[in-house]
Amino acid sequence: MSVITLIKENHERLVALRRDIHAHPELAFKENRTSDLVAKVLEAAGIEVHRGWAETGVVGALRAGTSERAIGLRADMDALPIQEQNIFSHRSTLDGKMHACGHDGHTAMLLGAAEYLAATRHFNGTVYFVFQPAEEGGGGARVMIEQGLFEKFPMQAVFGMHNWPGVPAGQFAIMPGPMMASTDQFDITVRGHGAHAAMPHQGADPVVAASALVQALQTITSRKLDPLDAAVLSVTRFHAGEAYNVIPERAVIGGTVRAFRQEVQEKIESTMEHICNGIAAGFGVQATLDYRRGYPATINSVDESTVCRKVASELVGKDNVCTDLHPSMGAEDFAFMLQAKPGCYVWLGNGLGEGGCMLHNPLYDFNDDILQIGASYWARLAEHWLSVT
After folding, report:
1. Taking a C-beta distance cutoff of 8 angstroms, is the pair 192, 247 a contact?
2. CA nearest neighbour of 163 among 19, 345, 353
3. CA-CA distance, 332 to 248, in Å (whole number)?
4. 249 labeled part of a ligand binding site
5. In the predicted model, what is the mean pLDDT of residues 342-367?
6. Alpha-carbon distances of 102 from 21, 287, 312, 346, 356, rounded to whole Å
7. Within 13 A of 39's CA, how many CA atoms are on the CB side?
8. Longest CA span, the chain
């Protein structure tokens, strides 16, 4: 693998940096220590630093030459509310908080690229290093955009990267079009009429109605959508009653909806509304749907994906760049950035076995062997996009 020599020589330092961040995880919008560390490294490299974006976000600006072209490279910084079960020396020092998704590695890789680009400046234009807070459900990307990220830092395209367990370490997966799904949430409150459990005919049972709803909702993806339109509707919550001998007044079910196209999201939401009304009428209860849009689908631009494939192929070899993996039903708030700017979101294989445990697992750890690969990819992408020739 043709990693950049200067980055390879800096590998042990990147490992130490990544493990330090891992040992001190911080949740959404509270990444204060991480933000301080990022700003310190950027400033030491001579990079212009802008802080306070979405509270704890940091943007570094590095200019070379005379071109007005600019590229944005984004890494996420936040951890998850998970109790780590690893026993290695760099395990989390904070109970109930853990870097279980690899954002510690993402931050370290982008810092490594920033230091290299600041030292060499073999490009013509501006590189914006976007260190984003609150990816894990907080929508930090959306907040940064609403605060004027792309107005303050005008870039022609923006790029993201995520480690991906299950893909061999150091291999890339880069596909145009959908990469990750949208993520919506819903709650349905079913209101009936309470009664003694021994005399159910005197009430209107919301538990039975809600149970019918759970079953009926599963027909949306199997019978109401085009089979070629991938979507998931999962009921994950069901709360009702407190006593064994009481039919409660209400039941509440909730869950998530995932899709790749906005038209599919809208079809699912409207069909859910119809099913709620029909079930409620049939059981003599009331059913109220609260449907909330979350992250949109992560959709890669075709031209930018082509550039990323070229850069990755030159770095690790064409055979180590996969272009036909299935997109994930997981979600990513980098999608907000791709709604505002063309760009591409890639997966970098985290490997199998040690360092390859699946994401959001208490035994997960980022694979340090890929730090120099990810940092080299970022650097080569910036140099290619802002070519001096």
Report:
1. yes
2. 345
3. 38
4. no
5. 89
6. 10, 40, 20, 14, 11
7. 14
8. 83
The per-residue pLDDT for range 282-305, each reduced to its tens digit, is 999 999 999 999 999 999 999 999
- Give the integer Cα–Cα distance in Å for 101 and 95: 17
Q: What's the predicted TM-score (pTM) here? A: 0.94
Q: Other C-beta atoms within 10 Å of 145: how many?
A: 19
Give the chain's end-to-end CA distance (angstroms, integer): 25
Whole-Å CA distances, 196 to 76, 240, 245, 250: 52, 15, 6, 14
Domains recognised in the chain with CATH numbers: 5-179+297-385 (3.40.630.10), 182-295 (3.30.70.360)
CA 106 to chain centre: 12
Dump pLDDT digits (tens) for 233-250: 999 999 999 999 999 999
Tens-place pLDDT, residues 150-187: 999 999 999 999 999 999 999 999 999 999 999 999 99
Strands 250-259, 231-240: pairing is antiparallel
Phi and psi at 126, nearest 5°, equal: -130, 135
With b meaning 16 or more CB within 10 Å and e meaning fewer, what string describes 161-187?
A: bbbbbebebbbbbbbbebbbbbbbebe
Tokens coding 69: 């072209």
90 annotated binding-site participant: no
DSSP state of 319: G
In the predicted structure, residue 130 carries a pLDDT above the cut 80: yes
Beta bridge partners of residue 322, listed in sequence order? 173
What the block records as the tokens of 206 is: 């919301």
Taking residues 189-196, report their average pLDDT. 98
Whether the Cβ atoms of residue 284 and residue 204 lie closer than 8 Å to each other: yes
Helix-helix angle 11-23:32-44, to 10 degrees:
160
CA quadruple 133, 136, 137, 139: dihedral sign:
positive
Asked whether 4 and 376 are in contact (CB, 8 A), the reply is yes
| DSSP letter (8 states) at residue 201 | G
Q: Is the dihedral of CA 11, 80, 157, 52 positive or negative?
A: negative
Give the separation between CA 328 and CA 337, rounded to whole angstroms. Answer: 18
Tell whether 322 is in a known binding site.
no
Q: How far apart are CA 338 and CA 255, in angstroms?
A: 26
| Structure token digits, residue 125 | 């234009």
Cα separation values, 110 from 173, 347, 378, Å: 18, 14, 7
Nearest-CA neighbor of 113 among 189, 42, 170?
A: 42
